[in-house]
Amino acid sequence: MIPRKTIGIVDYGVGNHASVWRALHGLGYRCRVSAEPAVLDDTDLLVLPGVGAFGAAMEALHRHDLVEYLRGQSSSGKPFIGLCLGMQLLADVSLEHGLTAGLGLIPGQVVPFDQARWHIGWNSIEVVGNDPIFRPSDGKSMYFNHSYVFQAAPEYQACLARLDSAFPVGVRRGNLVGLQFHPEKSQGAGHMMLKNVVEGLCA
Amino acid sequence: MIQKRLIGVVTVRDGWAVQSFGYGRYLPLGRPEILVENLDRWGADEILLQVIDATRQGRGPDMALLEQIGKRGLSTPLIYAGGVRSAADAVAIVAAAADRVVVDALIRDNASEVIKAGEQLGNQAMIGSLPLSIEHGAVRWFDYRTRTSEPMSEELLELLEAGVLSEALVIDWKHEGQPGGFDHALLDALPKGVPVIAFGGLSSAPQLVQALKMPHVVAVAVGNFLSYREHAIQAFKAELLGVPLRPAAYQQTLHA
Amino acid sequence: MKYCTRCLQPDTRPNTKFTPEGICPACDYFERLQDVDWQERYEILEDLLATFPRRPSQYFDCIIGVSGGKDSMRQALWVRDKLGLRPLLACLSYPPEQVTERGVDNLSTLIEHGFDVVVAAPAPQTWRKLMRASFDRFTNWARSTELALFSSVPQLAIRYNIPLILWGENPGLQLGDLKTLGRTGYDGNNLRYMNTLSGGGLDWMLESAELKTMIPYQYPSPEDFERHGLQIVYLGWFLGDWSLTNNGLYSTANGLRTREDMVENTGDLRGVTSLDEDWVTLNQMIKYYKFGFGRVTDYCNEEIRHGNLSRDAGIELVTEYDDSCSPDYIAAFSEYIGIRVDDFWRQVHASVNRELFNIRPNGRIERKYQVGVGL
Amino acid sequence: MQACKRCLYTTYHALGLTLDEEGICSGCRIHEEKDRLDFNARWLKLLDIVAPYRAKSGTTYDCIVPVSGAHDSHWIVHIVKERLGLNPLLVTYNKYFNTPLGIRNLANLRIKFDCDILIQNVNPQSVRRITRTTLRQFGSIYWPCLAGQTVFPVQTAVRYQVPLIIWGAHQGLEQVGMFSHEHEVEMTRRYRKDHDLMGHEADDLLSTFDTLKEEHVWQYRYPDDMELSSVGVRGIYLGNYVRWDPKVQHEKMVATHGYKGARFARTFDTYDYVDCFNYMDLHDHLKMVKHGYSKVTDHACREIRHGRLTRDEGLALVRAHEEAPLQHLGKFLEWLGIDESGLRYIAGEHRNARVWAEVKPGRWMRCATPEAPEMDAAAVERRLDFLADSELDYTGVGSYITIGKGYPL
Known about the structure:
Chain C is built from 15 helices and 7 strands. Chain C is an alpha/beta fold and 375 residues long. The radius of gyration of chain C is 20 Å and the shape is globular. At the A-B interface, helix 1, strand 8, strand 10 and helix 6 of A face helix 3 and helix 5 of B.
């Protein structure tokens, strides 16, 4: 029996980790929801959820003294997934409500969405290249609910979506992945992608 | 390409899911969390859970119900409405289980809290509930607490135009529960560019298509008319031709 | 008419041929059984079962046709408790007027042993109408009912998506019906050509009832078998002690209730055959008048082969009881299919094999041959 | 808690109940449709609905009809076969608590209407294991019966590729006006889980703390959506198209098709549940424990709405029957292998606190309930004249029947 993987969901008081927990648990993973490095260390992969304003989220991470910890974990190669706002937090800086520094784990800025006020609802994603952890989800519809976009450096862009023109909705740099949509709320397609990404990063 | 959305509505009164007719008559349906779970299985694009007696009885949001639904592991985006009294309420609702929040009375009582909630959660999470009717050619905004109608206030229009509220849930409350009752004229009642969700008396595919064909109508919501047959969501989706919509999906459970 | 030199089987059974030495196929087969390595056959069965793994969300390993009688109880318990499989038991049940209390009790006992059982029961009035038509046409009321009986298991196997069908005895080997011999001793897919089934399907029944009222009687086609990968396997080939008496012993030790009526009325020597229905006695008597052997002969043959009965003692039993059938059963049957008792006898007399029997003016039917000797 | 002014239901009804401004409940309001709608037109609507399902090939059935030895089955098959002219496959789930009269009525049904029938018998060991879990978890001894009766027809529809299932009346509509007749509500998995199964589908019974396993419960799983949609399975309710009046319907079936009723201690209705030793006995007692009302209240409300009882007469009949002692408890205790004291302990854990006050540990008293009006309940019952020409255990077998003969009738 291959040992079960354990996933650490970073709890910094922002966003809804209950749905993330449920989705991952449903896929057969053990989950720890915590802000304690000691607990998060003892996991195979970290998930950084997040909903709402960039600035408020970074403040919360600082308050929980997690900024340096997360930077250290990711740069040491530990599998790491940022979901929705959690993807944007990977950026250098965000222009939402003035300038706020992010975790700086993937080069690029978070800027207001230029094609519309918001990107709300189901939209199909286009996978860049044929990274096996993303390829099976090419063309699948995922659920989006954001108004800022992480314009990551092109070499790290993994998935795109489109209104009029394409914009990044998924990034990957080594064992660090960011997804702008909510896989835990994208029904079958979302759960499949979540499984592929976790298995791919932990392989 | 962004798809339009078919939203399944679960209306809750006295803790029980009900069918609602014209904001006044109700028939019992069952346990809210089981109706929500069913819509999740059917593949609704979003689920709107509206607790219609929370504000009137002075209770805040139904956190117990939200926690219960959160525990069941929903894989469909959830919108909550009912009893939102503050930004703090809105944040708690999202932390419990919801992805987006609908405000109605709060717009009238304390618009600044609506703005604050938008700042904390992101305005894309905020939806304005607009029960409207047309009285002698003029659009009236209904206040279900006083059961009176008045023109839409400047403050409301400002919240919509400034994008504090990302979408407007336009409810034809008079025709709610009436087959084919929805008055499409209501969909032109709002300032240009405000995305609209149509709800109230939408029972047939042609009605839904007519609404969804309008560029600013981003979603249609159906409540009572989803409770009369199996796979109601998939059945509607199969008939919504010429509209960009996620196709109907039938769950297949492969047991060990 | 010639008798088998070993047992009391006359050469009048359809589809059968005696060996040059005058031995019936069943005795010949029984003889060859003596040096069979039953452990090897058991391993053959295990290998065969391994080729039928359970598919995802399939919870039954196989399907077994049962009536609740001695064969089915033995098979079901052996398949579950020895082979470790989970079988779905399929029972084609007689209508309320015809099934016996003892039959429903035995089926209940089988269920209470912890088996999943699906009972298919055809429409009672149509059933009766077809029994009447079958009796009128063949002087054998069971032609239609047997078609339903044999069709029920493959029909359910297809609908419940269970390809492996476990059957009792191989009629080709045990009874000498050569037409049903398959590629191996245990391949049962030629069961459709068995004597009782090969009566041209249900064409003759269409004169009595519409096709749509006879769905339970429609035996799946070879194409259906192919499409669903059905495979009938005879357990009899693997069970060396398979016999009427032994199966009776296995089942009564597990709660089977037997027939209490005496052999003079039933022709059922030990009271363990077709317990769920009493009018089979008539058919066995009529079989005797057509072919010169009835239920007592079948029983004695097995006992003679197993060395529990001498041929001479068998002759006495056959002579005495082979045509036993109480007038009460005949009266009840006649009333059920809507004829008078003397209509019944007129029909039977018309089918008596005049080479073997004389019919006295008073209606008595007497053998022209001597049991065990022949003509 | 509020009570309806016209019938005896309160807002504590297990299926939910709403009252309008005049204090009349949703069940009574929807019942008014029975005297307002044009049921001739609705019959024509039914004909249109079933028309495409009439099989021409002669090799398959037109529809699946769930039946039992009681509960409107004779009337349903009469409508389906004799008035709609359809060729049904009857299906029934064996609940094992069968009475001789139930076995007889089912035999009568099969003979009189000349129908093929499919009877599912889940292995009793699994059924007992499930019953222990559902009794422990939510005080129900009937979950396997309800789960089996509501899913076996659907599974059969998928297995036999016969898409149309025809049920009698919709319980939610009849009791609490959950739907209007004009909604023409159809069978849904949601309703089954929510109400028939008290919120627990088969897989919900499994937990790491209990010994119940998937192999025990799989047979009660609803077919998945893909199977249902590929076959086009659809369940309709006759009660939406035929004016449903169980008493009158049963009386017709007694007169023309030999149905037989029997007397009960805990209700005045002699037709609905004659096929089960438990439904009107221990199960009915547990319903009182969990919800504060029992089957006789359902029967009284039905008769009040049909105008055959005044509200006071209904209340008098309810009070006369609802506390009647149990007559068949011993059979169940023996069947499940539990002790009466144990059962009382379990029931105690599922007392509805809104209805029962634990005055002293282990002693419960029912909260305030309207007194029975001064009235001769027996006289009212005589006027109603529910026929009872047999008894549950007319053969005197004294125990549950697993499979029975049921003949002579």
